[in-house]
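Researcher: Here's a chain I'd like modeled. Treat it as a single chain, no partners, no ligands.
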Amino acid sequence: MQQPEKIQPADGKLAVFLPGLGAVATTFVAGCLLARRGLAQPVGSLTQMGTIRLGKRTDNRSPKIKDFVPLAGLDQLEFAGWDLFPDSAYEAAAHAEVLEGKHLDPIKEELHAVKPMTAAFYPEYVKRLHGTHVKSLQTKADVVEALREDIRRTMKEKGCSRGTAVWCGSTEIYVEASAVHQSIASFEKGLLENDPGIASSQLYAWACLKEGIPYANGAPNLTVDFPAAQQLSREMATPISGKDFKTGQTLMKTILAPGFKARMLGLNGWFSTNILGNRDGEVLDDPQNFKTKEVSKLGVLEHILQPAHYADLYGHLYHKVRIEYYPPRGDAKEGWDNIDIFGWLGYPMQIKVDFLCRDSILAAPLVLDLALFMDLAKRAGFSGTQEWLSFFYKSPMTAEGLYPEHDLFIQSMKLKNTLRWMMGAELITHLGNEYYD
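Model: Modeled as a single isolated chain. Structure tokens:
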């Protein structure tokens, strides 16, 4: 990335496109509507509640991030989405049972007004879902054109000057990049030929990039992390980022594992299991879809702990991840971890973590932050993968040939230093003397 000489102002309305108008998306929309009315706090949102230190500690300058960089305000957001079910955002939120009536009732009319457009959906990628609110066209190229028309119509109807998109849909079956993903030409040929390597999520991403809409991938799907999407991103001067929202159990791993490594404590094993009963749990009950999520989750510890460098401490780590669909739990996911560590002279110890979390409550602020930061990146003239947004993802995308950074604290430092760099402010390096520490 080149340091921007000028960042375009966040003038006018910003359309936030949400492929997948389910539990996460409706929780996000409802929270934004409540927050801009002053009826609730956007807890968990870095853009709304986070601060950023500028200069020396003795300067006492720590403005809120939203007051430091030119972000769109909550009152500028317009919401639109696609879903394979026709329910309005209110109906979908009521069905998801994430939010209580005291939060849905005050904004009922506004939520009802957010009605999904017909989805780009091929059931072979998510076999547990059977929707009727879908586009029925001859080729995947036709579907992309229909999605582009949805985007243009929405922008016009809502009077938006810009748009940004965040995938909030389900996890698709595991797909690896193949010949069809290697160039813009091969991908567009594949669209015309209904190539089975092109999944539904890739159609949304392609349509958005063609329209100059930044695209953030909140699931572990192969959506924009392949050469053709990277090429199109650069060609359209439009940023991309991903993948897989870092919420419950993986969030805890990226907090705990750096601590073990910093103190040179060894790890013999880390067993993780999850139970959840929302739509995501139902989808992940299919082994092919679970594999996609498993790959995303398993890479975290290896990259943080660097077993090649610390073979005595982490070279024999056994890492196991399970997800179980348990309908009574709903969106209130439980993540349970058994961690076998060892310390001085190899003496063993154990840590047990039982995280009773709410999946959509943790994901919703990430949707907001990604929507606003991706719009900022577009106005700053960035394109390609936005590694500085790795903070929000389980499986961060990187430039070719680089390994991802998973340590939450390094990710946070990189994100804030990128914001300082964008604005021409001094980077925080903790070098020099005590006044810079």
